[in-house]
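Researcher: We plan to redesign the surface later, but first we want a full-length starting point. Tokens attached.
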């Protein structure tokens, strides 16, 4: 359902949020290394996230990327919307362009339920909810 780029963006934002207490800004290289992603991809998606006000950046020798308290309390849906667009929750599970309730694919009815539940979770879960479990050592961003 989510693109690889969107998943990478979510991991990058969670990484920034889980390190926000230190108030140090993170570089593209640092983020890319931690989440095991290409620096090029991470750089582009971080620019998009800054433009969409999901995260912040600062230029200069002490610059980098960071997230503030208000941004930590935003729903995960904001990241998805910035990278993939919210219409990702309207797409067919089999990738058909003309799938609908009146012209369903073989998995339409089952997939719609799961897709709607996933959207609800992304709307309810805050960035802080996900970084808290990482800081407690209960969940991980690296595999």
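Model: Full-length starting sequence:
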């Amino acid at each position: 359902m989510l693109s690889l780029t969107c998943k990478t963006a979510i991991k990058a934002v969670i990484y920034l949020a889980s390190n926000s207490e230190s108030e140090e800004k993170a570089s593209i290289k640092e983020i890319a290394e931690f989440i095991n992603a290409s620096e090029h991809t991470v750089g582009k998606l971080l620019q998009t996230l800054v433009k969409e006000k999901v995260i912040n950046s600062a230029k200069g020798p002490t610059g980098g990327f960071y997230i503030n308290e208000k941004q930590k309390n935003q729903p995960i849906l904001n990241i998805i919307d910035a990278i993939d667009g919210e219409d990702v929750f309207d797409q067919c599970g089999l990738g058909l362009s003309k799938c609908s309730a009146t012209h369903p694919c073989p998995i339409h009815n089952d997939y719609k339920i799961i897709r709607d539940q996933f959207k609800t979770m992304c709307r309810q879960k805050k960035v802080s909810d996900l970084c808290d479990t990482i800081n407690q050592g209960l969940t991980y961003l690296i595999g």
